[in-house]
Every structure is written in structure tokens, then in C-alpha cells.
Amino acid sequence: MDFVAIDFETATYKQFILSYGILKVHNAEIVDSLYSLVYPPDGWIDPFLSSIHGITIDMATDKGEFPEHWNRIKEFIGDLPIVAHNAASADRCFLVKTLNYYGLELPDNLWGCSRKMAEKLYKLNNYKLNNIARHLGIAFNHHNALEDARVVVSIVNDAFNKLGEDEFVKFLRTKESFIPKGGRRRVSEDEDYIHFNLDSIASKNQLDGMSIAVTGTLRSMTRNQVECLIESLGGRADDGVLKDTQILVVGYDKMADFKEGKYSNKLKKALLRAENDPSFEIIDEEAFMRMIGAEENI
């Protein structure tokens, strides 16, 4: 299997890529690598994150901002599948937010998650990258992007070897190891939900600065994926309903309770806010998908 393993370190929480490590793999062998530091757009690195990955602003000063690296990264990756650890909630999200900040476009590559593969393969107390590396007997410098990417390669290769090609491919298609193009969540065939085509969204700035929070479980994608989608469309994904949050998207589980008059504390506060603030709106998942221009698949 040919793919690239990727890892990012960030300047601030979940945004502004500060370093990238990318490894190109052909027939289980690493054949090329790409690594660099990146200068963050506001020249600031969160001190706590700096204490974790060891990157200081002085180290990145002459490295150029992300747009100066992007063409090189795109050319290196090409159309290969991209595998990362916690792909949906971490590295893919980091990339989406950084690209969105600079007005750059996310390529239409397939993404995979080495954590999902590890959960399939191993019985561990946690599936953090360093714990998996310890289980595999791999010594590495954790939070160095290129070193982390090497562990990702080892997990993918181990999965392929232990499962065999047929089972490995089957797993990718049925166990959410790979994230479908557009960030859609795989669901069972008998689940009652409406299929939306995210590729139908016309405008990259569909949300244009709108602040949106999400509560409950969505049927079209995971929470992390919808937050990245909001950011990629020019909006702001809020962690809960803030003073300036404009829309609360309610998942199908919470909406069922909502319609029956069973309100969580979060929904009670949101209802009071909606009654007194005409600029704040509570909508369900279907209304949100239509709002961003996603067409329903018949």
C-alpha cells in the first residue's frame, strides 16, 4: 500500500501549524521525507505547547509562514492517501484551520487514522502515540513531527501485515479507519438518517464569520469533523454556547429529547437565550446541512 504518514505540531491549540513531518511510503518502505518548522502568523507560540514540543519562536523566525510551504507539501503528497494519528480531531483539523486562515484549499485526498488501526490491533489502556510506540518497542522523540510520523508508518504496516491485504482493505471500508472525502461519517445501512452530499457546497466562505456551537450526536459526521467543516467554510466553531454564539446545532439524540420537552441544562440555557436574543437560533442537523448548501442525496 502506498500512502503518506503526516504529523503536525501547532503554535496554538488545534490551529496554526508550527512544524510538519511527512513520510512517503511505497510497499511498506519509507522512500522519502519532508520536514520543516513554520513561522506562525502572529509570531506567537503558546508557552504550554512550546514546553511540550520544544519549538520556540526564535527557532521558527526564518522558516516562512505556511503559504510558503504549501506548494511543496502538496507536490510531495500528490494524490496519495494521508494517514495520521487521531486524524479527524487532530492533524486534519490542524490543516483545515491553517488553510482556512490563509484562504488556501484543502486537497481531496483520502485520510486515514492510525489510532483506529491500533484500536483494532492491540489491547492497551490508552491509544496515545507514545503508548503504542512503547507497545511496539519503538524508541522515538515524541512531539517531533517526523518522529511521530515514523510511528504512524509502523502502525499502518503492522495492521497490513497482521490483517492481510483483504482484511485490511475491508477494515478501512467498514471501521471508520479512513475518513471519506469531505469528512463524512460512516454509518450503518439501517440507521435512519438523511444522506447529504458535502461536495455540493459551493462557497468556501459559506459561513462568513458566523459563530456556531454543536451539541449532541450528528448523523452525517462526527463532532470533530463538523467543527473542522465550520472552520473550513469561514465560520467559528464554539466550544459551547458563548455570549456571541449565533447558532446552536442540536444533534438527533438531543433534538428527540428537545421535541419531547426533555431539556438538558445546556438546552435550557440556550432556550432562554433564544427567547431573549433574536440573533441567536437553535436548529437541527438537517437545517444546518441545508444552510451550508449541502444537497440531499436521494
What's the layout of helices and strands?
Layout: E1 3-12, E2 15-26, E3 29-37, H1 47-53, H2 57-60, H3 67-77, E4 82-84, H4 91-102, E5 111-113, H5 114-121, H6 129-136, H7 145-174, E6 178-179, E7 196-197, E8 211-215, H8 223-232, E9 236-238, E10 247-250, H9 252-259, H10 265-276, E11 281-284, H11 285-291, E12 295-296
Helix pairs in contact: 4-8, 5-7
Detailed description of the structure:
This protein has eleven helices and twelve strands. With 298 residues, it is α/β, with parallel strands linked by helices. The chain has two domains: 3-179, Nucleotidyltransferase, domain 5 (2-Layer Sandwich), CATH 3.30.420.10; 196-296, Rossmann fold. The strands form three sheets. Strands 3-2-1-4-5-6 form a six-stranded mixed beta sheet, sandwiched between helices. Strands 9-8-10-11 form a four-stranded parallel beta sheet, sandwiched between helices. A two-stranded antiparallel sheet has the order 7-12. Strand 4, helix 4 (91-102) and strand 5 (111-113) form a beta-alpha-beta unit. Helix 4 (91-102) packs parallel to helix 8 (223-232) and helix 5 packs across helix 7 (145-174). The model is unreliable at 180-193 (pLDDT under 50).
